[in-house]
Amino acid sequence: MQPLNNFWKELIVAITPGFAGIGSLLAGTTADRYGRKPLIILSSIIFTIGAILCAVAFDKWLLLFGRVLLGLAIGFASMIVPVYVSESSPTHIRGASLATFNAMITFGQMAANIFAGLFAFINPDYVGWRKVYHNEEAWIKYELSEISASIEEERQCENRVNFIGTVIPLFLVEKLGRKKILLISSFGVIVSLCMMGGAFLLVNQDTAATLSSNGLSSFNSSVKNFDHCESYSNCDYCVTDDRCGFCAPNINGKKVPGFCLPINPSGAEGSTTGYCSSTFSNSSFYEWGDVYCKTKYTPLPIIIMVVYLLFFACGMSPVPWILNAEFYPLWARSTAVSISTSTNWFINLFVSLTFLSLTEAITKYGTFFFYAGCTFIGTIIFILFVPETKDKSLDEIEALFMTKKSRKEFEAKRNQINPDFKI
């Protein structure tokens, strides 16, 4: 699996939503031509093959191909299942039924993480966690010395709170309505993202400062990225850049100033020069880290992440899937849902591809403030343009988007068929 630089990490993560976008585009015409049920069965078959390939992957290329297949399957399923459920559910339970679709996704994520945790104990050096951190000494030290217990608790806690959050709409979506739940969730997401940005700002200000290497004979300033790494003022800025790591004296686990140095490009742990390089005779006295920094605020982002997931899961996660399956007329439903679902996955792709690069460009805290701003814009759009569809049939929802003239004609035709019909 090595080397896994930021490009490969982003690619492995992003390839799935990218192909999910392609799969959801292909699903629209396929569903109209061959029907809803065959496409659901096809996506299940592709899911199975993709999961097997990811499980047996012996290198990053096979893992990448397996995630391509999973992406296609996700695209098919995420487009066609909401359509099938919306068309086959009675009006009074349609919202709850569509929310179940999203809840089952998060239940699967929760179950997957629990099983992944159990598999981590099976030959952890070569099998556990599928090789992604194999021989990464920095990660091993981090897990053992800092949060070996809390990291697993965090992962399982997040996936439990995410699952719990998606269950909430099952009971409220038909009582409060889609729009109210969506707006409550959106405001909560904005606040929690701002809090997350503030938490990472506190982390940044609390990390150890960097020292200058001027006059120190053990440092070779001519190596690649030396001047670039040394320009960072503290540990957090240093380790956010995938070209740099932080080297500091190991004094009983205390936070002490150190040096920001370029990472050894050969894949071996340590820096290319300085006290944490393999050529330095007393390197065991120094501690090397390229993914974390010592700070008293480590638990804060974890706690806020749980709050964020709860707000996101109770509204912004399920409600768009519900509305997306309800908004469109029958003649355009498959195509419209296909396009909107594909847009969702391509934006997921964009976020996955740019997250690590964005944290380098505008810092970790700046990235979350940026996401909060994007969510604020989305909330304004929700307020202005999203109608309430609670207790309305699919035909009634279609009428919500008509002009006054078209709506009157629609009402007249429906009244001829059903005199009790009202919008």
Automatic annotation (TrEMBL):
SUPFAM superfamilies: MFS general substrate transporter
Top-level lineage group: Eukaryota
Pfam families assigned to the protein according to its UniProt record, in alphabetical order: Sugar_tr
Primary location: membrane
Transmembrane regions: 6-27, 39-58, 64-85, 97-122, 181-203, 302-323, 335-356, 368-386
Swiss-Prot/TrEMBL keywords: Membrane, Transmembrane, Transmembrane helix, Transport
Annotated GO CC locations: apical plasma membrane
Gene3D superfamilies given in the database record: MFS general substrate transporter like domains
Entry similarity comment: Belongs to the major facilitator superfamily. Sugar transporter (TC 2.A.1.1) family.
Name of this chain's protein: Major facilitator superfamily (MFS) profile domain-containing protein
Species name: Panagrolaimus davidi
Organism lineage: Eukaryota, Metazoa, Ecdysozoa, Nematoda, Chromadorea
